[in-house]
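R.M. (postdoc): so does anyone remember the format we settled on? I'll just put the structure tokens first.
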């Protein structure tokens, strides 16, 4: 919230200091500043990227393209130019140039970066069919209604006959939905693998959150937390190949424990 507030204040200040006349007057310097920023970033990203790829050849070139085009500049550059004293003769021109660069990054780069990611194949479209989502939605809604029904019965707000009747209907509905979901996953191995992978990731993230709570309560040291979270982060990156086991003892430790 504080970052959002600070950004808002900076853009309000730049709006009070730059008018449309200044932008029109210094349009060419602002355009030159945009090209200068793009050129300097290209030299930095692709120059250092070439050196890095020399030591790490498997680094995809597409990463460099994203780093180059994703170089958004905003509140920090505006704050710096606003801090210039009014005695500086070129202050108005620098304000217009900086504002022009920020406008370019926000209106052009920020709006086209998703297209670039798709063109480079770095994003994956959601392939979950609507039929599966509908089944899951109906199943979750049915289970929620059953919990509500059980709560009414436990509070004495529902007679046993009504509770048993509706409960049987809900159970039959859930069984039908579960069977339909199982059939769909059997026919779509790719969807089955995706759902299982997401379940693994959710479980691993839950373990990570539990570790953070243990460390916060003083039940886990910082070194142990760092090691365990690193193992979990690695497993999250490849949930299909990873195990849900949080920690695996070495063979000699296991053998030693088994002899006790």
């Amino acid at each position: 919230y504080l970052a959002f507030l600070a950004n808002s204040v900076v853009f309000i200040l730049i709006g009070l200091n730059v008018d449309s006349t200044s932008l029109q007057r210094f349009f060419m310097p602002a355009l030159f500043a945009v090209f200068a920023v793009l050129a300097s970033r290209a030299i930095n990203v692709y120059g250092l990227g070439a050196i890095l790829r020399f030591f790490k050849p498997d680094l995809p070139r597409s990463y460099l393209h994203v780093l180059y085009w994703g170089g958004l500049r905003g509140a920090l550059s505006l704050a710096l130019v606003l801090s210039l004293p009014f005695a500086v003769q070129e202050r108005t021109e620098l304000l217009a140039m900086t504002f022009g660069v920020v406008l370019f990054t926000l209106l052009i780069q920020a709006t086209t970066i998703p297209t670039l990611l798709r063109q480079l194949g770095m994003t994956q479209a959601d392939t979950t069919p609507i039929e599966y989502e509908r089944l899951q939605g109906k199943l979750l809604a049915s289970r929620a209604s059953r919990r509500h029904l059980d709560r009414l019965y436990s509070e004495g707000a529902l007679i046993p006959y009504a509770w048993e009747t509706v409960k049987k209907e809900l159970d039959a509905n859930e069984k039908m939905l579960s069977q339909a979901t199982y059939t769909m996953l059997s026919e779509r191995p790719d969807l089955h693998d995706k759902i299982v992978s997401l379940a693994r990731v959710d479980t691993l993230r839950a373990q990570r959150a539990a570790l953070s709570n243990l460390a916060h309560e003083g039940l886990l040291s910082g070194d142990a937390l760092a090691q365990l979270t690193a193992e979990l982060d690695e497993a999250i990156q490849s949930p299909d190949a990873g195990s849900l086991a949080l920690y695996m003892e070495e063979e000699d430790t296991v053998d030693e424990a088994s002899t006790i």
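R.M.: ...and that's the designed sequence above, right after the tokens. Also worth knowing: Residues 212 and 218 are 10 Å apart (CA to CA). The longest helix spans residues 27-55.
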